[in-house]
User: Fold these one by one.
Assistant:
Number 1:
Amino acid sequence: MPLTPLSAARQAAFDAIAPAAPERVPLLDAQGRFLAAPVTASRSLPGCDNSAMDGWAVRAEETQGATRDRPARLRVTGTVFAGGLPTTSLQPGAAARVFTGAPLPPGADAVVRQEAARPTQDGAFVDVFITVPPGNDVRRAGEEVVAGTPLFGAGLRVSAAVLGVLASLGATDVWVRPAPRVAVLATGDELVPPGAPALPHQVYESNLVLVAALAREAGADIRQLTRARDDEAALREALTRLAPQVDVLITTGGASVGDKDLVKRVLTALGARFFVDGVALKPGKPVAVARLGDAAVVVLPGNPGAATVAFDQLARPLLLKHQGVLETRRRVRAHLSEARHKQAGLTYLITTTLEARDGLAPRAVLRPQGAGQILQNVHGEGWALLPPGRADFAEGDLVDVELFDRPTFTSVGPQA
Ligand SMILES: Nc1nc2c(c(=O)[nH]1)N[C@H]1C(S)=C(S)[C@@H](COP(=O)(O)OP(=O)(O)OC[C@H]3O[C@@H](n4cnc5c(N)ncnc54)[C@H](O)[C@@H]3O)O[C@H]1N2
Ligand code: MOO
């Protein structure tokens, strides 16, 4: 099968799964998930004019000219606490004791903080020491949100900030898409489980943790982490057992052309339908996307660096599609920190950090990178994209850098 160009492979992976049906869940269970329906403000915030300070509700004009030496003396006619209701409106010449969050009595249009006033000893009057303008220390009804305003679109990732707003509107639950159920299967005879002793020629199995963590960053609910030997019967058993339990099954290793690279062969024998098999991408070339029964299957190469890139470019969009969103990463143009030679037919993704420069495009500082290496990703800020159709890049050449942080998500599929 010829290698699929990266953009076509991404589209094919995206098409290999449909958004899951929305579900309504309690607010805290929605954290990190994606809204499956738009949210409109069901009430105004604040719901009524209220005091921003502990102090005195007044008519602003009656404080005109007030100073510490020449205070404005007002008659005290009531107290309002947060959550209480004023029993009377404020008459001319009067002030009401108010606390932070208390509704303003009708007739009052400003608040004087208690530090700027002093009640008389009998409490019948209060002396105001400052001149305040109308609206002083008042939070206006609807100043943050007016009831009926569209607030959030479908596809927004539910953060702590989003949850706070939903709770402040009185919501207890919200429409989101379920987290995809994911199993990860690491294959390879040479792998030693972490915790056991390993000789220098042996390799600790690290892809289960790596891929499970990457999948969780993409919203997955990890159900199974399993290892299997490079053996047809063992692979057949693991694949047929895991696939029916999950929405997405991710394998690592055994994806290439070696004598023991059996994963694709076994999947084919089990009747899997392939959407992608081999991508013009480095690292990550052997990656494949298939369906086995109702599960999407992503076959990642065993090299951890290659698995990271292949996951990022194909498994991540697929997991996000299940959650009803398409991710768009920000891109910047940057000057390469060093020359690179590459295979002309492939897209190279190189972990990079960015150095800002006054008045110039930033410098993309390329990290040393091999398909088996992953240390470079710890501080990586994005991928320098070296596009196909070209083999040589010089120091200083301008390339696109796909940034990891602050992506945007747009809703795909029917909403709740
Ligand atoms: N003749 C060719 N050889 C290879 C080709 C090719 O086109 N022709 N492709 C190469 C590419 S590209 C990659 S990437 C690797 C990936 O191959 P596999 O997916 O079959 O991976 P393995 O052979 O099983 O392992 C590769 C490497 O990664 C280590 N590994 C595997 N699993 C884990 C794990 N769970 N934790 C940590 N490390 C793991 C493994 O020990 C090997 O060192 O194939 C090239 N070969
Ligand atoms: O392209 Mo492989 O995935 O790098 O070594």
Number 2:
Amino acid sequence: MGNSGFEKYKRLPSGGFALSGPAEMAEALRLQNWRIRREEERRQGEMATGERIQTRRLATTSTPSPSPPAPVWKLRKDSKAHSKAAKSAKPSKAALQFVPGWDLAVGIEIHAQLNTPHKLFSPASPSAHAPPNTRVAPFDAALPGSQPVFQPGVLIPAVRAALALRCAVQPASRFDRKHYFHWDQPAGYQITQYYAPLARDGSVTLRARDGLLGDEVEVVGIQQVQMEQDTAKTLAQPGGVQWVDLNRAGAALVEIISRPTMRSPAAAAAFVRKVQGLLRGADACVVGMEEGGLRADVNVSVKRAGEAGPLGTRVEVKNLSSFKAVEDAVVAERDRQIAVLEGGGLVEAETRGWTVGGTETRRLRGKEGEVDYRYMPDPDLGPVVVDPRLVEHLAERSGMSVDEELDELVGRYGLTEKDAVTLTGLDDGNRVQYFYNVLEALETLRTGNWGEHHAPHQPEPPQDPETLSRLAANWCLHKLGKLTNDSSLLAMTPNGECVVPSGDLATIIHHLHEHDITAKTANALLLGLFSGDIPPGHVRQTIDEQQLWFHEISRDEYAAVADAVVADGDVKAVLDEFLKYYQQEGGKKQYPEGKLMFLVGRMMRVGEKAESMDPGSAEGVMRKRIKEVYVPRMMRGAGGGGEGEGKAEGV
Ligand SMILES: Nc1ncnc2c1ncn2[C@@H]1O[C@H](COP(=O)(O)OP(=O)(O)OP(=O)(O)O)[C@@H](O)[C@H]1O
Ligand SMILES: [Mg+2]
Ligand SMILES: [Mg+2]
């Protein structure tokens, strides 16, 4: 790969690599990648939660610089100090979950826009981007004489939503009018399903991977799912004027009502996030909370711990538009109620509001001010009769639920739970399809190689698909993620293709896995594909033409490089740390991994050999030689370095 190619990479909108030239890049990238890999492995094994954030940042801002990056041990130390300071300023998430002596009960109502081209009772198609008041049928504006016409297409996403929440779809449901007077409601009432909703009695299962703290599993009951109209959008203007946009008025929503069984703020947020994922996975609702497609009201009550009898008085906090707002509002409202009760007062049933970034809920209206909705069946609308065959048909075609897919990814493909969750959540669920495409192409590459023997019954190649799929996940998530901060530049499609074709990424991963190319080469190839420097389908050709195949040096040569590094007098203090480690009793002192990485870093910078060295191999050799050669020599009193070792001893 010539200079011109690398020059090009500099101009990429890349969050990850700012390559300067082949020579610097060669060692900097390799060293950096290896550090990240090492650090990631270790992180999984032994690090505390607080430190993770810092290391992750290390991994995503890997801009190689001519001077060696700060040693990882230092970053870890800094991050420890950092997380300590943060802790003293703010209580931890875990500490916020429970208040001793008190039980919390949370029930949630979620309003979600259905994925349908029409409004609930008119053929107008609501759109968030259309100019105001351009998607309005006469009925949406409640013009006299206009009538509601139920749009049967709405039933498909609505039933899908009910099924995703494991509800029983009712054979017949009805529409009711809920009356209130407000400028966001042109008819003076909202059409909803009060007496006979679309579906009842479902459940949503929450686990640690959904955001619960600890290992418990919480099953949240779904009381009912009902179809209803959205309201108009209003925009407050100076002088008490309200601008009203009817584009949203009458759009089809489902209201999902949970039972009041959530016990912690984290469970409340996890529930809303999970419902969003389930609805999205079922194709029932495709606009998420951030884009305003999903809103939640939380109902909060508290009771003295262990007290029998009914739940405490419910207070409803309306219109929360982020997962964080859900969690924060529950914490604030719970604490407010506890303070009232501990002060000898009584909690009043009321409706409250929440301001993003706030610390307290604020009163909107009390029970006595609560509107009497005067629910009544809508005389203009007949019952919705759902043919059980439609329900069956949709259930059969519903595919895997998010939970089942996560179980697959973890159980069969060996991904970490965290990677599985991220993979399924990215690019509206399209990233995981890309991952499957890459795996499929890898399989073809793998079996294709075997196929050259043309034997009728090939045994399964002795490969470890788990390692391979974990490697593939790493590339589909982290390597691809590092190309750009703006994931829309990847242009991921619903069938799982993007500007880096899945087959080409598979070729890179395949050769990396086979140790045919170095991680540095693999990174550069990915960048080449992303920048358009390497045309689709030309990965192998590029490796051939630019002679990027990896020819690794021998173990003895590695040993010689290691010896040259420790022969340098200024690593004496570093070597002393290993001596201390091996001389200690009781195993209290931890192995100086950071120092080891420092030495390997030095190895990787030994001039002309660097191109043919693999950091993992270098690490293995250095670790072994420290234990078997350098430390014993220091114990014998010969000193760790400085006297310029000659020939390498065998490793
Ligand atoms: N004591 C309680 N503590 C916490 N949550 C409760 C309590 N009692 C009921 N809830 C929850 O309050 C919610 C009530 O929602 P529902 O839609 O039935 O009535 P609503 O809030 O009066 O109606 P809307 O707000 O739609 O006009 C449910 O999620 C339910 O689980
Ligand atoms: Mg409700
Ligand atoms: Mg409510």
Number 3:
Amino acid sequence: MTDNKNIGEIIGFSPEVYKISPDLYKNYDVKRGLRNLDGSGVLAGLTGISEVHGYVVYEGEKTADYGSLSYRGYDIADLAEHCGWDGRFAFEEACYLLLCGFLPNDTQFSAFLEALRQNRALPESFTEDMILKAPSKDIMNKLSRSVLTLYSYDRNADSTTPKNVIRQSISLIAKMPTLAAYGYWAKAHYFDRKSLILHQPQKEYSIAENILHMIRENSKFTPEEARILDLALLLHAEHGGGNNSAFTCRVLTSSGTDTYSAISGAINALKGPKHGGANLQVVKMMNDIEKHVENLHDEGEIYSYLGKIIKRKAGDRSGLVYGMGHAVYTKSDPRTEILRAQAEYLANKNGFGEKFELYETVERLAPKAFAEFKGDKKVISANVDFYSGFVYSMLDIPNELYTPLFAIARMAGWCSHRLEELISGGRILRPAYKSVCKNGKEFVSMSERKKLYCEKEE
Ligand SMILES: CC(=O)SCCNC(=O)CCNC(=O)[C@H](O)C(C)(C)COP(=O)(O)OP(=O)(O)OC[C@H]1O[C@@H](n2cnc3c(N)ncnc32)[C@H](O)[C@@H]1OP(=O)(O)O
Ligand SMILES: O=C([O-])CC(=O)C(=O)O
């Protein structure tokens, strides 16, 4: 890799070459971002895994609506309410539901849990050869590389039969917490100069319990902390076929590639700050607001700072208020409602009441600021990423792990979409791109090009 920052300039590279006039999208009726003119997604497939509802279309008009989400027909709010009944953990049950399509009976669920237990440990010397040898500052990068490397440890890595893919899916769901926790400790050790702590995953623990056990130095956690984390995992497990990472998984799957390639691609997509990576960006943005707004009780000052963020004059200069807006949801994201309640509970309990108030204020003011400073009529609200990082911080989870937690949970959704694509998709996903390239250019020899440049310089 070249370290020369000016290499682009030296070789004559200019981003201008890549610019395509926005008008051309209209002229050729090309759906930018695979979106219809009203912002709704272009229909790209069918799914029986989940349903994401955020607006209604009546007589061709899109109208904002309250959001709802169901997994295999079960409302997420209902699943969340019954979370942890009879001592079970909700996330594992949701994984079963998503993968198999129905809620398990006792025998089926016990077999599923046993399979997860058997698959928690990493292959022999994987920790030494992969995790410790090539640490990364970014745990999502580490997770993606780890998943890709697991290919080498699977004797039947390339088979795409449902029987083989369900086996691989269970193995990946079980291994993700260990990969994330060890990746985190490798980063803490090699980059932050902390001690290296590698707790073995415990067979009898749930996924949420194992995460807390492995990421904490003293390995201790309370049943309540595990329940709240379990709930967060449940809420992040699945979100339709069109979300960027699931679609990535489906695109890769449709080429016939192996499970590890398709899933590591999905992890890479989730990492982006406009997708799952937003949960970390929200926390950074809130810290930035706390630092720059003098009076945090002055809503006017907060509002004008949000305006600065949107106008790219503050924050990370992306113009985005992280944790706000959604491709489908308009008036509300059902997951946010549940996470907000958890954030409020933990904040009151742990003395972060003022911080929670700030979150609520930003949540309330951001849509108004968006409408005013962006001049956009789109109805926006807080998405799943808005409160999740705050909840994790109150569970004492390091911020490097916020997006990896999303990936641990979403593995269930990705694997289900991979199975659905393999079983019911069947055609390679291959949309078209209208070419706006000017053809018919005559080849110019090197000596002629030399002359042309000299003439230009003269
Ligand atoms: C798990 C998840 O992935 S949830 C989403 C997590 N992402 C974030 O929280 C990042 C902030 N939000 C966003 O970037 C967007 O709302 C997205 C990517 C989530 C959805 O985007 P879309 O609904 O497709 O919005 P769309 O791309 O149509 O945007 C319309 C305009 O509003 C802007 N916009 C949308 N959301 C925001 C926001 N939160 N802050 C500022 N501007 C926004 C877009 O940048 C775009 O501006 P432009 O026309 O100047 O390019
Ligand atoms: O659906 C989307 O575009 C993003 C999202 O909320 C998710 O993947 O959970």
Number 4:
Amino acid sequence: MPETRILITGAQGQLGCALRSVLPPETLILKDLPEFDLTAASCEEQIVQARPHVVVHAAAYTNVDGAEREPDRARAVNVEGTAAVARAAQRVGGRLIYISTDYVFDGAKDTPYTEEDPTNPLNMYGRSKRDGEAAAAEHCEDCLVVRTAWLYGHGGKNFVKTIMQLAGERPVLEVVADQRGCPTFADDLARALVDLIPSRLTGICHVTNSGSSTWYEFADTIVRLIGSATVVRPIPTTQSQRPATRPPYSVLAYGRLGLVRAPLPDWRDALDRFTRQIRSSASTIPSSGAAPV
Ligand SMILES: NC(=O)C1=CN([C@@H]2O[C@H](COP(=O)(O)OP(=O)(O)OC[C@H]3O[C@@H](n4cnc5c(N)ncnc54)[C@H](OP(=O)(O)O)[C@@H]3O)[C@@H](O)[C@H]2O)C=CC1
Ligand SMILES: Cc1cn([C@H]2C[C@H](O)[C@@H](COP(=O)(O)OP(=O)(O)O[C@H]3O[C@@H](C)C(=O)[C@@H](O)[C@H]3O)O2)c(=O)[nH]c1=O
Ligand SMILES: [Mg+2]
């Protein structure tokens, strides 16, 4: 049988970078801005022409506060763009893996969300991703929606890098302590996708690192791991001035992933590995006057 061709959208993003490090390069077709634009008329045709067996659709509008300011753009990318990707996957008889988010939930629960729980997003980003899930499943028969959360990795902006940078600049950081979720290392999610791609699983599957944390506890752990003297102070969400409302609780249950593989490592273990990687790559780059992390 010929080798499986896997097309990755958002190939330069956090998850895209992680997937490129775990999948054989000769199997990959990489798509991202500016040549590949989910809002361009050519998007569907570009995928069809590549004739992939599997599409991992990781590209998205991921600026949560930005989506409140430009909801039309967020929907064009996350909903209409996803519909185009799904139509293309269907046309070539391919499998679609759509990456979605814990922000589809409202946080009214206080026990982990299962794949069967109803969605009720609180912000524009979450609504666009929820509608993206529906578009993916509507247009492609062999579709798996993989919901993950609080993602960090190489090749993109994330909370860990923000806190590492702020810890080098400020003596005190204030971080919300009443929002709980599952920090997830993109490398670990990519390894789970290696198992999910050839599986027959369709529908929805939750994939995060194990355990849960508040943003405060996450930030405090980052600061300790990098040996910074910065003090992290817990604050309530009412003191955080952000345009987008975040769910107070969005822990995703280890559910259907159990049909395919063991749970991912604990989030503290994953964070330890990521911060070590960042620090060792920083120490091998010749100094340019940047603050060491
Ligand atoms: N980050 C997180 O915390 C979480 C992310 N997710 C989901 O996981 C997936 C991967 O996330 P992550 O890797 O962090 O995302 P990133 O933002 O790191 O990467 C997304 C990629 O998509 C590209 N992109 C943006 N707009 C378009 C467009 N119009 N056409 C083509 N490409 C575009 C971005 O390009 P550019 O950088 O130039 O804009 C970027 O390279 C996304 O679907 C996201 O919704 C789910 C849960 C948590
Ligand atoms: C940096 C920082 C954030 N915060 C708060 C703001 C917010 O409530 C929370 C997280 O902030 P961020 O803006 O970094 O993260 P946010 O954009 O909310 O992250 C989300 O991104 C999208 C793409 C997802 O899909 C989600 O799973 C989730 O990872 O932490 C502080 O209280 N203090 C701080 O210094
Ligand atoms: Mg980019």
